[in-house]
Amino acid sequence: MMLYNQFSLKKLTILFLLFISTTTFAQKAYTIAEIPDPKKTGGGWVSDPDKILSSTDIDEINNTISDFENKTNIQVAVVIVNNFDQNQEDFDFAYELFNTWGIGSKTSNNGLLLFIAKDRRKYRFITGTGVEGVLPDVKLKHIAEQNLLPAFRENDFGAGIINTINAIGIIVLNPENKSELNQLFTQPENNSSLEKVWFPTIAIILVFFGVFKITNRQAKKLTKNEVKPHNKEDYDPGLIKGCAVAILIGFLSIFVLVFFRGFGLLEKIKLAHIPVILFVALALILYFRYLFFISALRNTYNDDQNFSDAVNTFNKKNWWLILFSPLILISLIRQKANNAKESDRFKSILDSKKNKMIRVDRDENIEGAPYLTPGQRKEEVIKAYDYDIWLSTDGREHIIKAWPAEEYTDYTECPSCGFRAYKTDKQITTKSATYSHEGQAKIINECSFCKKTEFIRWVTLAMLVKSSSGSSSSGSSSSSSSSSSWGGGRSSGGGTGGSW
């Protein structure tokens, strides 16, 4: 009885160990969401999460498929796993995977998926509707039986896939088939190209030509004929900052397009997109033209009220520009806000006899003489204050009102002369830094009017460092020249499959 119990205990122990080992070494069964998309992980065409293929095999497959895409626009994906969702058949799983990733182009559905499940000994081709004519189910079945299955039965999965891809390449790169594929893929964008592309493109160019003609004529009239130009270099800082931001965005966009291929956007640009791209580009140019015109007005007028009136006059005549460049609406709103803030500034004030006073036109009297002191005029020049001068009708009284200008916060009152022209922590370079030695500068407080100077401290300027960006940009080049995303293709269920 004791021997029997010992034997039973040994059997239970062996069964338990077998259960543990089976559970431990069971292969992962992937769901659709768990299959790594090669476009998001490495930019290639092969997804091999279980490392069944060698890196050499993957490189060869990627290179071959990239050649297909460059010459025929076909996108081919290869997915090989040990196992997948037990609740799905190989066709359902592969079909759902194809449409989830969107293999192929959205307009031509020129995608092909080869899905392989090693443990189930299953393979499945899924085709987009655009390649079914060149790669029908019967032909794919024949290719698999001749190239894929014999190698798989020998557990040589790399050779089987490579031979299969090469056999597909012989078909799709055949001059007759290639011509058929190209005709199919370009057909959606070649139909009525004159009406869908060139007519709206020419119309957009003509319309914007007229818009630029009208605005340029009005700009010349307003800046040359109606005012006397002054040499005041006073540009609206908000407009300058806006231009700088726009230029920076443009530079970064060009950088991304050139060095990162636009994160796949370039591959998605079609002929039908040309009118939209052209409109956006011309709308941006019109916006910059508007900003520089406003800046030219600022340079033309020394008097702030005259400048504001000139801008308002131009905007009333040309509000319709927002239809061609909606960004102009931002500037219009901003200028309306500035007008609201300055409404109190330009309201007439009363003299001692309760009569309305007259504001001195600073385009006629730029220096504000004899009412402004040299210190006040200096505050205007450095943009710490704007001074409005009001005169009584009999000329016996005057009132000066100060308004904070653009650089108000950059200055403080000078302890010596009392004018707001004292700049603190001003850095002056005494010895420039080079690539071989450090530089030196001094920090001082200085008054722009009375020239009072207070030394604060010496600072060391860091030695210049040569850029090494060139060495890192070309260090990692993939063997595949594929784009960074699939094209949004769909499959209607074409393809074939089987077992080995």
From TrEMBL:
TM regions (residue ranges): 197-215, 238-260, 272-297, 318-334
InterPro entries: TPM_dom
Endpoints of the signal sequence: 1-26
Alphabetic keyword roster: Membrane, Signal, Transmembrane, Transmembrane helix
Span list, region Disordered: 467-500
Sequence ranges of Gly residues compositional bias: 486-500
Biased composition (Low complexity): 467-485
Residues annotated as domain TPM: 46-169
PANTHER family in the record: UPF0603 PROTEIN YGCG (PTHR30373)
Protein name listed in UniProt: TPM domain-containing protein
UniProt organism field: Pedobacter petrophilus
